[in-house]
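Subject: design request, 368 residues
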């Protein structure tokens, strides 16, 4: 036990603790008037997530590597159940009602896929067609199920993270260039299959004032809140946009606006510093990993965090179309929070197993 405590990456743990404190304070400011019970529920989710985080810290990566196929299969099965027995919220069928909480299978699939791909490339590089086609199929199947829910945001996260991991596994740059060209060429096809409300979000991005009380309302109110925060903000629980409920979904996707309005530039800078420290630490742990599996796993997890942070902040700032992506460790939500804490627990396990070890040097290194 003492040896394990010495192997813990305390910087990663301290960063997570600071994000927890900042997230709970911001959430309390967002819900204390309308739905204070959500704050207590988020505390329960943090407790459950940290329990899983701690459990994974004791779980050998070799065992987890052997479990990647069953984990992927369970996540895929849950996705198949969504269109059959899933609950509908705000026009989308994405959740399974478990009684105590609503489970979003797409959240589980993101991490299960990263686990699967990291295991697949642990002993091979992405250079032959077989090594590339198999992970592409593993990615496309769940992506197709998620986009039909519809959930374009999570689908993009899935594709982005899988691409980042495949590149880290050794994808030749010429093949990457061809993939980029193919992706750009497929945009007209993607536009054709997008739902009307998704198309409207893209058009609203170009001109939010074209529909200020409809599709553009979220972005307009959000940018007002962010801009009114100034340098030091309006003060804790004194944000008018949040307190008067001008901000829709202010406790989930748009919680960054609450933070910016009440804490100003200082609070935003603190959040970005913590996120930067988290990402850099995950990549540093991946670089020091003594197995290729652990290294690739860290790359996949870091890429998911990067996209979540970038898209959410860009979305509420009017830089990107509005998609349903939460702000990591800050937004309210059980499935997202617990899955992110579980992923961070895996990173901590990589750090524990790599303490004092020599970093991996060849693709043929064992899983752990």
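Subject: RE: design request

Done. Sequence follows.
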């Amino acid at each position: 036990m003492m040896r394990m405590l010495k192997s813990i990456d305390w910087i990663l743990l301290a960063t997570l603790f600071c994000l927890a404190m900042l997230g709970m304070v911001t959430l309390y400011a967002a819900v204390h008037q309308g739905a204070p019970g959500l704050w207590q529920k988020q505390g329960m989710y943090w407790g459950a997530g940290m329990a899983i985080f701690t459990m994974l810290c004791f779980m050998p990566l070799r065992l987890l590597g052997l479990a990647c196929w069953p984990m992927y299969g369970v996540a895929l099965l849950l996705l198949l159940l969504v269109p059959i027995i899933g609950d509908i919220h705000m026009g989308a069928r994405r959740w399974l009602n478990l009684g105590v909480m609503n489970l979003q299978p797409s959240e589980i699939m993101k991490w299960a896929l990263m686990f699967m791909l990291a295991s697949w490339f642990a002993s091979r590089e992405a250079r032959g067609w077989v090594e590339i086609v198999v992970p592409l199929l593993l990615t496309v199947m769940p992506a197709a199920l998620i986009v039909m829910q519809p959930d374009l945001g999570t689908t993009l996260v899935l594709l982005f993270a899988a691409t980042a991991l495949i590149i880290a596994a050794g994808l030749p740059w010429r093949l990457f260039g061809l993939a980029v060209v193919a992706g750009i060429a497929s945009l007209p096809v993607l536009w054709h299959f997008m739902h009307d409300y998704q198309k409207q979000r893209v058009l609203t991005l170009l001109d939010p004032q074209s529909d200020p009380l409809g599709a553009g309302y979220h972005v307009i109110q959000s940018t007002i809140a962010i801009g009114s925060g100034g340098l030091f903000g309006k003060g804790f629980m004194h944000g008018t946009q949040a307190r008067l409920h001008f901000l829709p979904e202010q406790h989930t996707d748009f919680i960054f606006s609450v933070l910016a309005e009440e804490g100003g530039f200082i609070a935003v800078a603190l959040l970005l510093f913590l996120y930067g420290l988290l990402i850099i630490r995950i990549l540093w742990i991946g670089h020091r990993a003594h197995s290729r599996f652990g290294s690739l796993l860290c790359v996949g997890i870091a890429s998911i965090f990067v996209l979540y942070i970038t898209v959410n902040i860009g979305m509420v700032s009017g830089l990107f179309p509005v998609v349903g992506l939460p702000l990591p460790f800050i937004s309210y939500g059980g499935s997202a929070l617990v899955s992110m804490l579980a992923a961070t627990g895996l990173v901590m396990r990589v750090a524990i197993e790599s303490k004092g070890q020599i970093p991996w040097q060849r693709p043929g290194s064992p899983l752990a």
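Residues 358-368 have pLDDT under 50 and may be disordered.
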